Amino acid sequence: MEDVVEKEAIDLTMIDEVCAEYKGRKGATIPVLQKVQEHYGYLSSDMIDRIGENLNISSHTLYGVLTFYAQFYTTPRGKYVIRVCRGTACHVKGSGRISEVVKEEFGISNGETTSDIKFTLEEVSCIGACGMAPVIMINDKTYGNLTPEQARSIFKEYAQKQD
Amino acid sequence: MSANNDIIEVHICMGTAGVASGGYEVMDAFAAEFEKEGISAVLKERNCKVKATGCRGLCARDVLVDIHLPGMGPITYEHVTPEMVPSIVQEHIGAGQVVDKWAAKKDYYDFYKLQKRYVLKDCGKVDPEDIDDYISLGGYDAIKKVLKEMTPEQVIDEVKKSGLRGRGGGGFPTGMKWGFCRASKGDLKYLICNADEGDPGAFMDRSIIEGNPHVVIEGMLIAAYAIGCKEGYIYCRAEYPLAIKRVKKALRVAEERGFLGKNILGTDFEFHLHLKEGAGAFVCGEETALIASIEGERGMPRSRPPFPAVKGLWAKPTNVNNVETFANLPLIILDGADYYASMGTEKSKGTKIFALSGKVKSTGLVEVPMGITIRQLIFDVGGGIAKKRKFKAVQLGGPSGGCIPEHLLDTPIDYDSLIAAGAMMGSGGVVVMDETNCMVNVAHFFLTFTQRESCGKCIPCRIGTKTMLDILKRITTGEGREGDIETLQDLANDIKIASLCGLGQTAPNPVLTTIKYFRHEYEAHIKDKKCPARECSELIEFVVADDRCKKCGICFKVCPVGAITWEKGKVAYIDKSKCVKCRECIVNCPFNAID
Ligand SMILES: Cc1cc2nc3c(=O)[nH]c(=O)nc-3n(C[C@H](O)[C@H](O)[C@H](O)COP(=O)(O)O)c2cc1C
Ligand code: FES
Description:
The structure holds 2 protein chains of 2 kinds. Chain A has helices at about 1-10, 15-20, 30-40, 45-55, 60-70, 90, 95-105, 150-160; strands at about 80-85, 120-125, 135-140, 140-145.
């Protein structure tokens, strides 16, 4: 039942507008998926079907494309996306421990989201701030030169945030 | 130098690292301070400008602020926080007294001594969001010269003469590549800037785009004219939001000013340039995969030939170059091929930008003439190893490259010498490792990366890397078997030969070089079930060595689970039933006293 309620709650007309903008353009798939995801935060099967209908592409093809790229998500993501850099510079400076701290604090592993949809953990390869390794990002904010315990206190701060 | 003699300029580093370290807060603090009484009167007479610049290299010391006062060389302040701003403004700008305690010292300038900031000369000076600032530094003069004085063939000859080789990894001669694409039949040709920068540990391209986006656009214009391309794309990885923002703005403004679009600078030269955001796949840095991705497909490499110069984007002739390659071009045109070719070695001309990171003191972005040695790069420019530890190895060329040990540190940095040493120039990531880094773990790390990023199209890469990874995993967890090293080598050689694209062909390199130079570490893991660097936690006993423990209590303080007991004057003790093997004690012990 819950499923149905949720489906009705999401207004998908935005998709039609985006598709109209890109229709007929070459190489439209990825930009359209990006725009739709930017709006809704993820790509549900309904959204994907709707894009397919609009662009005249089968859903299979769309799935083929979106599962290839790390930046597309088919489930809702946390309000705070914690990106732990697992690039080389961060690795040699101990970023593996920071992922473990996330797990200790929130019980989530790479790609998982807490049940209250507050936090998602995403291990990424290089944020491009290697000079400040180890680095994490929480949404758009970057934190560098972290020890595991400093990271833990940052996570605790976010956990206490009321919306 | 952009600082005009009459005006005061404050330059604040606003690259990714600058922003992350609080660049905007520092900028606001300057603005607030300038509003204050007393100062505002002083400033009113003397035009004062606060400028957000790109990365100037030494990210480890951010936020970096330069103050240019008339009649005085620029002074740099390190680690600036908003709290420091009032003193800097009042004492330095107001009264002309440098605040010595915060001003950069000798070690800051040492970082630049051996460098040749050529391609990066304006990064950190120019305001990346202001086209006029770029133009005031001679920006877009090169394309003006090209359109006015040179035929496309002359441009290609000049680039050939300069000896420029692609900075994206392979080192293919740029002028020659352009020649191929120009010679291909067809009216519609595409030009692509590869800004995917997937090497985890590299940030040169990001810094160039964030620090000076117009130089990339200008380089692309020169290439487009020489090859005969009307359409182009900058393919930028999605993990670089600031770079994307700045490219978007630069493209819009350049078009408004008539540097892009139709009738560029009043001629009939036409070039339309678009931004494509990547969606997170390392293999998309490979040019044929990148092309597939722009076409909206899964980003899988295609077999070559046909090369993109013949059949590329939408089956049209296409030329792909790296960001840094493009950034070199305006300089070659303005300074001339002869000057350019006077820098570097016989076969590797010019400079190369490196992202220096890992266990080195001064991490950041450096630009050096080709031909200096790896030792100079790490010890003279980078200031040596941090925390008084010992150098162990340096990884050059990212996951496709190799680990270079101490005895090869005098290898000159040029395309061919590095390949001979088992590494490669790659994109320019230089990750330094010290005695606490385990080389088997490093090999495992790189292979985990390439394995995950393998697109799965060809079997040697898909299955082969997985099998290698399984073996490495068991070695690092104490399950290694006799013969594993040989199996790894055999697999590695097969994968190198049989894979479809560069990803698979190079993926075994880190494993091969670590076996070649650090075989004893592999053997210690397999035979003695020990990790000499004490990084593989399954192979560490977590006991304090009585004879080495200096009873300082640091381990006691850092242990997050309270597993360590210690009293002043006593050797620490680790309770194994509580220990979670996080290695905090090992990392922090100044005396290497935990086995
Ligand atoms: C797996 C793989 C990843 C690559 N990643 C990049 C990259 O991130 N950036 C880049 O410029 N070139 C990358 N390349 C090299 C490109 O295929 C291509 O050679 C390069 O963009 C050409 O530009 P250049 O001649 O200016 O070097 C990669 C190659 C492979 C095989
Ligand atoms: S490796 Fe972490 S930011 Fe580059």
